[in-house]
Amino acid sequence: MYSQVIKPFIQSYNGxxxxxxxxxxxxxxxxxxxxxxQPLSMLMKMNPFVKELSLFDLQHTPGVAVDLxxxxxxxxxxxxxxxxQRREALKDANIIIVSAGVPRKPGMTRDDLFNVxxxxxxxxxxxxxxxxxxxxxxxxxxxxxSVIPVACxxxxxxxxxxxxxxxxxxxxxxxxxxxxxxxxxxxxxxEVNVPVIGGHAGDTIVPLFSRSKPHVSFSDEQIIAMTxxxxxxxxxxxxxxxxxxxxxxxxxxSAARFANALMRGLRGEQNVIECAYVASDYGxxxxxxxxxxxxxxxxxxxxxxxxxxxxxxxxxxxxxPILIENIKTGVDFVNPK
Length: 337
Known about the structure:
This protein is α/β, with parallel strands linked by helices. The chain is 44% helix and 19% strand. Keywords: NAD, Oxidoreductase, Tricarboxylic acid cycle. The active site is at residue 200.
C-alpha cells in the first residue's frame, strides 16, 4: 500500500509522463488554501493521474494556485475564490476532495465543529449535485460521522444520491494504526496493513489487529493501550500543537492516499481496497466504515466487517450507539422535525 501511494508522487517529481484520455482526471479540492488543503494540493499536483487541479476556497486560492503552478509537472492548476465561484470550481470534476471547515482546537467538541462545518458541507453538496453529480466525493471535514449524512441527505433531496460515490475519509486512522504497529514491532511501516472500521472519532474507531498483515501477537494490555492511542490520536496532535491547529500534514497525506486509490479504481486497476465511512446497514447504523473494493463507479463492493474477535466485538458494540446518534445529528440538520 505504501508504494502505491508514494510511487506516483516520486515518478511525477522525476518527470513521469502525463496520463492520457480516460486515465487522467480533474480533481477539485474544496478548502484548498487551508492547513490541510495546501499540502494536499501539492500532493495532487505531483500525482501523474491528475490532469487538472481545481482549487476552491473563500480566500487566498489565487496565490496557492500560482505557487503550485511553478512545480514542474504537467497538471494544470486553476483557482476559484468565493461562494459565487463554488459551482464553477466543482463543475465536471471526477473527484471532489472536501477539506473545507474549521479545525478542532483545544477544548472544542465534535458538536462545536458540526455547528459550523455542517453548513459548509451542505453548500458544497448542493453545488456538486447540480454541476458534478457523477463525481466521487471524498470528505475530510470533521466531524465525519455526522457530516457524511449531511452530504448524503442533500444529494437525496436533489435526487442525485449514489451511495457508491460519497466517502468519509477515515484513512488517517489506518495510517496511524500502521505507523504505531510498525513502531512497536520495529519493522518498516510499508509492510503493515491493519483495517480500521466503525467511524472517525474516539470510541467509534475500531482497529482490527486480528486481521493485521503481518500478523501481530501483542498482549491484551498492549492491544488496549494501542487502541486507546489510535482513538485519541487526533487529540494528541491538537494538544501537541498547543492551539495552533489539528492534524494537517498527516491528514493531507492520508487524503492523497485515498484519492490516489479512487483514481486507481477509476483507471480500472484490480483489487484496489481502502477503508472509508460510507452508507451502510451494519448493526443498525446507516453509515459505517469498512474495507471497500474500489472501481470505475466508486464502490465496486463493500467487503463488510468480516470476522471479529471478542475484544473487537465489544468495541463495535460501544461504537454503534454513538454512531447512530452522530448520524441522527447529520440527518436532522438537513431534515429538521
